[in-house]
Design a protein that fits this description.
The protein is an all-alpha fold. The longest helix has about 35 residues. Helix content is about 80%, strand content about 0%. The protein is globular, with a radius of gyration of 18 Å.
Length: about 180
């Protein structure tokens, strides 16, 4: 029993390190902040499959804490803590619901996170209010963000299915037996 728990802790630590490294890349290359944060969330999703239980929550908490300590005002930190870090955990729960209800709740969670991120960025980065000539920008960004989320959710779903059905067996992970 202790050996399995030790393997889980070691794998969770690797997932945390990988998440932080991916997010640091997003901090260094400012244009890659959303992509890096989305990629870092995959480690939480993989932990949900491989480790289950408390480990995805711990990976989210440790990665979010490290990012906050290293980059407190970075957009990558905000994105990870306020949405991408916990979304794979919530997604796993929502996938058990009927499909339409699941999609509605996913978009509700995403849009609540977008509002929180917007207001925090406005306070932290001291954004000025948009002038009337730029008033169209916020609704346009909201539409683009929802399209990005739909693509992200679809891509995450495809990746997770491919991981479970193809990669685990091909890489021998199914024989590694962590459970």
């Amino acid at each position: 029993m202790k050996r399995i728990e030790t393997k889980k802790i070691a794998l969770a630590s690797l997932f945390c390190a990988l998440s932080v490294i991916i997010c640091i890349i997003g901090c260094v290359f400012d244009m890659a902040d959303l992509a890096a944060t989305a990629a870092a969330s995959v480690t939480v999703a993989l932990a949900g499959i491989e480790l289950r239980g408390k480990y995805p929550y711990l990976i989210y908490a440790v990665t979010g804490t490290l990012l906050f300590l290293l980059f407190p005002t970075s957009t990558v930190t905000l994105y990870f803590i306020l949405f991408f870090g916990y979304y794979p955990i919530i997604r796993g729960m929502l996938m058990k619901l009927p499909k339409l209800l699941s999609m509605i709740l996913k978009f509700a969670v995403f849009n609540a996170a977008i509002v929180a991120i917007f207001f925090l960025m406005k306070k932290l980065l001291l954004f000025e209010d948009a002038e009337t000539s730029e008033a169209w920008l916020i609704p346009a960004l909201w539409i683009v963000a929802n399209i990005f989320f739909a693509v992200f959710d679809f891509s995450l779903n495809i990746f997770m299915m491919a991981y479970v059905k193809v990669f685990r067996q091909k890489w021998g992970i199914d024989k590694f037996m962590l459970h």
